[in-house]
Design a protein that fits this description.
By secondary structure, the chain is α/β, with parallel strands linked by helices. Helices cover 32% and strands 17% of the residues. Strands 2-4-3-1-5 form a 5-stranded mixed β-sheet, sandwiched between helices. The radius of gyration is 14 Å and the shape is globular. It starts with 11 loop residues before the first helix and ends in a 7-residue tail after the last helix.
Length: 118
């Protein structure tokens, strides 16, 4: 059985283990994975991720707010405090899952399930 945690406090920042830490500091930790991907298994989850990320100050690389962009199923979180689409190469890396890659199922995460890593 999958454990559930207090989902009320689950944000993109807490997902990245940044609670009580600055976002910039998190990216400087030596254990920071090279590629962090957020998987959204449906339109509603993708819209929720984009809204949550925007509320916490994330933007796309071109400065556009996340909720102003089209939804997708996989997003990358970048060290420059942006999110981005992954394109076909990112989808391949996501599916291969080899190397320094972290894959997060955002639907499970916001539902409070503890095994949200893929």
């Amino acid at each position: 059985m999958k454990k559930r945690t207090n989902q009320r406090n689950r944000t993109v920042s807490t997902l990245l283990n940044m609670e009580n830490k600055g976002l910039l500091n998190w990216f400087h930790y030596p254990h920071q994975p090279r590629h962090t991907y957020i998987y959204c298994r449906g339109k509603n989850i993708a819209k929720r991720f984009l809204a949550d990320a925007e509320a916490e100050g994330f933007t796309f690389g071109d400065g556009v707010l996340p909720t102003e962009k089209e939804y997708d199923d996989i997003y990358a979180i970048n060290p420059d405090l942006t999110i981005s689409y992954t394109g076909w190469t990112g989808h391949i890396l996501f599916k291969q899952g080899k190397g320094n890659v972290v894959k997060i199922d955002y639907g499970k995460y916001i539902a409070g399930v503890t095994d949200y890593l893929m």
